[in-house]
Amino acid sequence: MSILNRIAYFQNRRDQEPDKELARELVGTNDLAGIQEIAANLWNENLQIRCDCLSVMEEICNQNPELIACYAGELLKLTKSKNNCLRWGSLIPLSRIAHLRADEIFPHLDDLLHLMDKGSVIVADNAVKILAVVAADKDAYRERIFPHLLQHLRTCRPKDVPQHAESIYVATNAENKNVFIEMLEKRMVDMSSSQAKRLKKVISQARKR
Fold first, then answer.
1. In contact, 158 and 122? CB cutoff 8 Å
2. What is the spatial distance between Cα 25 and Cα 178, in angstroms, rounded to a whole number?
3. Collapsing DSSP states into helix, strand and coil, what is residue 189?
4. 3-class SS of residue 13
5. Which backbone phi and psi does 176 adopt, to 5 degrees?
6. Which 8-state DSSP code applies to residue 44?
7. Residue 131 dihedral angles phi and psi, to the nearest 5°
8. For the residues of 86-101, what is the DSSP string, one character each?
9. How many alpha carbons lie under 13 Å from residue 99 in its C-beta half-sphere?
10. Residues 62/98, Cβ–Cβ less than 8 Å
């Protein structure tokens, strides 16, 4: 029997628990054929099935991202979808395999920068994570990407600064840490006390780079 029948859509469920249960089973049994079936249905004509399959992929990433790293190309294609569910649904697992597929992701830099700057909150959050991880992979990638991440920190909403700073931290090193710290210190005036506390922690970590 097809494992696709186990997803929430075919269980007449509105929650994602069936998807999570299936993902845990696929990981536990190292069922590569089952994962391949889920990946193939990322292009199912039924939108809900596609979203459920992305939900399964996301949960697999939570446990063993290496199992879906080979599907980075499929996820990258979905980031260009006009459907917001598919767009952010693909970015979440992509953010968790970015450290395994930086070379494959980097050529899509312009698309990811657009999503970071123009996407919804959840889209932008995950685009930042992906770009930061790719930037951390190679000096050449860092040189291209880090200025864009700094500009994003300069212009993003105050409430987003702490989370994005925490994500971008992985792309810092001895050469760029000072401009990163300076940017966070400039944004400090916009922060609430709790937000400022988070930024100070990131600054402290960056100084040790």
1. no
2. 46
3. helix
4. coil
5. -110, 0
6. -
7. -60, -40
8. HHHHHHHHHHHHTTT-
9. 9
10. no
Q: How far apart are CA 206 and CA 27, in angstroms?
A: 35
Where along the chain do its domains lie?
1-97, 111-209
**152: Cβ–Cβ under 8 A, 6 or more apart, which residues?**
116, 117, 128, 164
Region 157-163: what's the mean pLDDT? 96
Q: At 85, is the pLDDT very low, low, confident or very high (cuts 50, 70, 90)?
A: confident
- C-beta of residue 131 within 8 angstroms of C-beta of residue 148: yes
Q: What is the DSSP string of 51-66?
A: HHHHHHHHHHHHH-GG
User: Residue 122's closest CA among 157, 156, 92?
Assistant: 92
The alpha-carbon radius of gyration of the chain (Å, integer) is 18
Helices 109-118/121-137 angle, 10° precision: 140
> In whole angstroms, how far apart are CA 165 and each of 7, 101, 105, 180?
36, 22, 21, 9
Structure tokens belonging to residue 97:
């395999």
Mean pLDDT in residue range 115-143: 96
> How is domain 1-97 classified at the CATH fold level?
Leucine-rich Repeat Variant (1.25.10)
Percentage of the chain exceeding pLDDT 90: 95
Nearest one of 140, 142, 44, 32 to 86, comparing CA atoms: 44
pLDDT at residue 1 in the model: 62
Distance CA 48, CA 46 (A): 6
